[in-house]
Amino acid sequence: MNILSYNEKERQAGAGLEIMYTFYDYYGNRVRLSFTDHPFSVHPGHVWIICRYHGQWLLTDHPRRGLEFPGGKVESGETPEQAAIREVKEETGGLIRSLTYIGQYKVEPDMVKNIYFAEIAAMVKQSSYLETNGPVLLPALPENIRTDERFSFMMKDEVLPRALEEIKRRSLSCHERL
Q1: pTM (two decimals)
Q2: Within a domain: 174
Q3: Which of 78, 145, 155, 169 is most buried, judging by how many CB atoms fall within 10 Å of its CB?
Q4: Which CDD domains does the UniProt record give (predicted)?
């Protein structure tokens, strides 16, 4: 992926200013990503939750897109945190122990999504996982995830590796390879 503002990002980081990553997603849409407090909207329309359960990555198997971390729309009257808890439960059966806001990204022109990191306390077997085929546990994410056809397009741009770097920087996950 091409990171458009790399030099500007480095200059700003040295000056102690907010770091903003800008790149194009899998479909060529311009994306801006930040790990600051809600830089694009305090009312995002979507959530994406990077999940860990017993030292493994918890993903869901979307029938059309493939393997991805759970996520979805924030429904009317719902906070983004409530949406994150609901989406993880609906798509994986996971019950969240802790939920941490990581950052936010905007897919232009106007789709804003909060990124969370969740530690899962328990998994509940469900008769339905709504629009997904249910949970998938992986001990590690593949290094070649961008070319691995099993994975959704949402796992193939700069959001995932940057978010994993931020999770590691904040010491939110175990020390295995992220």
Answers
A1: 0.87
A2: no
A3: 155
A4: NUDIX_RppH
